[in-house]
Q: What sequence folds into this?
């Protein structure tokens, strides 16, 4: 037998048949849930290294700032729990904020999808990826989304080699000052209408690097974000399900 | 007076025990050390004071398993002869010192920008006007690639000077990923924040860098890590090596258009990284390594899980690798492509996997063993050809070696019992340098504490700091179409370099 065929038979089918229901194996620090238990809120807020936890009509946790390190859940297990829910993407910044006592999937506001992109990318979305100060972990998981197991391209989602061929840009990393200009040039080179996706906590808020002199996040001041995918890094199931929500909201 | 103090990997010393000498002595001592193959520079950095600057140099001796440290005092108003002129392996360190502080060298052979840090001395220089090397010729042309690349890759700019399809010269411009991690680690006076920063140095070397950071902090506070903690860290380091090497084989197969190898090696990586997920809740091992603790002890259940992953990995891996390495169409792309000779590796100070594939044995696991490597009695895999094929074979050899180590570590793993209480402060006015062999090569973290026992300076060196120059040399006289395969065969870090 030709060795290649033998190898293919040994490998069998590797793809995850249903990415909507697939579960991450082992421990997963996904969507957090905050209980209504009384706790030392001041200590809880202080234990978060990125200031993701705050108090505003009860305790809130901003997934856009959360590094999913799990320190808060380790120290206040009765107050904060990370669930195995891996679908964390949403199209509005407020949607990333988890509130005390509310345990429900991350909300997605269909009405906020811009008119010019609504329904346009249902079956095909070509993206250009720009790593701007990323630590190569979200980049790594974006690549993994396209391996034979996760196989994001089955949904028509692909990463292009040129901005001219793209329908949008995925940014990873906190946007370093040294990448600010290259990011802007890439964005300008993508034909309209185009979508803007932020993948990873660093991209959404700057994460650990927020406020560092090494960053220049002004790009986000004058461009509207269509999809936020939090995570450190973003798990492939999170990436795929989040992008699909934007492509096929109905 | 002593020319240096001889110290051990990750053992702190009082700052004032480091001999401070005249610059000329500093230059001659360290360049003389570098002339011996046993020695190489693991760190050379500046510590700026109000009216002067101290330079610290750490030369590791692979034969004696010690590190020679000395220092000198320089003035930013003066000019100095460079160490790089005598031995080129110092070039990257001196460039960094020049860029950050403005120290002037009279004869540095290649005083190019390193990463355009936000705190660079000369703010008029910007990443948009890097001074590339040019050739005036009607026959030659230049090709610029990046910073954004044709895939999901980190940013960097490659400038080729070509004669037709043939590359004559490649200059690599980095710095796009610079976030200022070294400064942030010092500024953030919070252990968890600092640890998370060390997790973000390079997302593909999370274990390597967090182990380095944890050992640095633990040594500075006099904490003795119990055996089970050291063994778990060693296992994590080897597991990371297996995962990334498998992924790299997939990338190499992709770049020679061998689709089956690309898919199979890619999919073989998944169960390995998923085991990290099972162990600590993250596929890249973020959250696993913390100073002073074993947050997710390696228990019996994990042991059988990891053994099972290895059992299943093995037949598929060997079948695929043996087939790939038997195909003339694959071999013709790998053999004699991107050669870096042993002399070149020695001259530029290559480390890790790249050096070992070109006949130069640089492996911290053997030369300055730490954690569980004392038990494993590691013998580095050493190949001599220095081409893409050697770097491919080396990965295969190391995957096999790591798998053996992992089995051994699992069987030797002691029960995770109690851990001593974490100390609350670091030794004041101390100095430490920590060397770790990550999957890519030697990682060096150096730290200095102030009189209050707080970090005053933190220096990080990813192996990529040395090895990017090896890539630039590898592609010379190769066809430009072979650049991607050469690049993948090194798989260097952009963010680990840019910091």
A:
């Amino acid at each position: 037998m030709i060795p290649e065929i033998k190898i293919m038979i040994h490998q069998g089918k590797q793809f995850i048949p249903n990415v909507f229901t697939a579960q991450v194996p082992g421990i997963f620090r996904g969507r957090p849930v905050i209980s209504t238990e009384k706790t030392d809120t001041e200590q809880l807020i202080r234990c978060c290294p990125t200031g993701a936890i705050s108090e505003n009509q009860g305790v809130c946790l901003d997934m856009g700032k959360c590094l999913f390190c799990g320190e808060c859940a380790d120290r206040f297990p009765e107050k904060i729990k990370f669930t195995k829910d891996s679908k964390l993407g949403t199209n509005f910044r407020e949607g990333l904020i988890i509130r005390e006592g509310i345990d429900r999937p991350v909300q997605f506001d269909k009405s906020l999808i811009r008119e010019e992109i609504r329904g346009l990318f249902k079956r095909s979305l070509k993206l250009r990826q720009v790593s701007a100060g990323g630590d190569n972990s979200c980049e790594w998981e974006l690549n993994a989304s396209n391996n034979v197991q996760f196989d994001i391209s089955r949904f028509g989602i692909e990463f292009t080699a040129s901005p001219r061929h793209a329908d949008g840009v995925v940014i990873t990393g906190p946007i370093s000052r040294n990448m600010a200009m290259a990011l802007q040039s890439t964005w300008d080179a993508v034909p309209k209408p185009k979508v803007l996706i932020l993948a990873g906590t660093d991209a959404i808020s700057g994460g650990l690097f927020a406020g560092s002199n090494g960053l220049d996040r002004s790009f986000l001041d004058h461009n509207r974000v269509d999809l936020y995918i939090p995570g450190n890094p973003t798990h492939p199931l999170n990436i795929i399900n989040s992008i699909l929500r934007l492509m096929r909201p109905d | 007076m002593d020319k240096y103090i001889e110290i051990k990997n990750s053992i702190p010393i009082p700052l004032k025990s480091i001999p401070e000498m005249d610059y000329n002595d500093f230059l001659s001592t360290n360049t003389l050390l570098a002339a011996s193959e046993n020695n190489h520079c693991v760190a050379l950095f500046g510590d700026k004071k109000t009216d002067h600057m101290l330079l610290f140099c750490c030369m590791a001796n692979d034969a004696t398993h010690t590190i020679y440290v000395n220092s000198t005092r320089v003035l930013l108003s003066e000019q100095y002869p460079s160490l790089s002129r005598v031995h080129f392996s110092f070039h990257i360190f001196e460039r960094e010192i020049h860029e950050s502080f403005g120290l002037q060298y009279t004869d540095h052979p290649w005083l190019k920008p390193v990463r355009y840090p936000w705190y660079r001395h000369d703010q008029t220089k910007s990443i948009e006007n890097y001074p590339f090397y040019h050739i005036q010729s009607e026959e030659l042309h230049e090709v610029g690639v990046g910073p954004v690349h044709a895939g999901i890759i980190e940013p960097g700019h490659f400038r080729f000077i070509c004669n037709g399809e043939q590359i004559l010269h490649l200059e690599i411009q980095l710095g796009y990923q610079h976030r200022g991690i070294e400064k942030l680690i010092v500024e953030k006076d919070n252990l968890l924040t600092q640890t998370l920063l060390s997790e973000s140095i390079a997302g593909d070397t999370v274990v390597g860098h967090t182990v380095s950071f944890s050992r640095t902090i633990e040594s500075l506070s006099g904490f003795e890590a119990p055996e089970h903690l050291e063994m778990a860290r060693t296992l994590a380091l080897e597991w990371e090596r297996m995962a990334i090497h498998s992924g790299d084989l997939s990338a190499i197969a992709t770049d020679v258009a061998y689709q089956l190898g690309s898919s199979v090696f890619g999919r073989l990586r998944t169960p390995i990284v998923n085991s990290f997920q099972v162990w600590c809740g993250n596929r890249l091992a973020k959250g696993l390594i913390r100073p002073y603790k074993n947050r997710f002890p390696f228990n019996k259940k994990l042991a059988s899980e990891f053994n099972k992953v290895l059992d299943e990995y093995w037949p598929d891996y060997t079948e695929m690798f043996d087939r790939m390495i038997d195909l003339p169409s694959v071999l013709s792309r790998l053999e004699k492509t991107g050669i870096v000779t042993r002399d070149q590796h020695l001259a530029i100070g290559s480390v890790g996997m790249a050096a070992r594939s070109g006949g130069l044995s640089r492996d911290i696991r053997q030369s300055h063993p730490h954690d569980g490597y004392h038990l494993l009695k590691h013998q580095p895999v050493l190949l001599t050809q220095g081409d893409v094929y050697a770097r491919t074979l080396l990965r295969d050899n190391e995957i096999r070696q790591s798998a053996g180590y992992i089995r051994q570590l699992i069987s030797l793993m002691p029960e995770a019992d109690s851990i001593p209480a974490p100390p609350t402060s670091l030794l004041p006015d101390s100095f430490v340098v920590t060397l770790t062999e990550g999957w890519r090569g030697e990682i060096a973290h150096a730290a200095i504490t102030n009189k209050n026992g707080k970090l005053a300076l933190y220096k990080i060196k990813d192996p990529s700091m040395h090895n990017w120059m090896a890539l630039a040399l590898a592609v010379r006289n190769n066809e430009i179409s072979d650049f991607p395969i050469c690049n993948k065969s090194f798989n260097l870090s952009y963010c680990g370099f840019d910091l």
In short: Chain B touches chain A through 63 residues (CB under 8 Å).
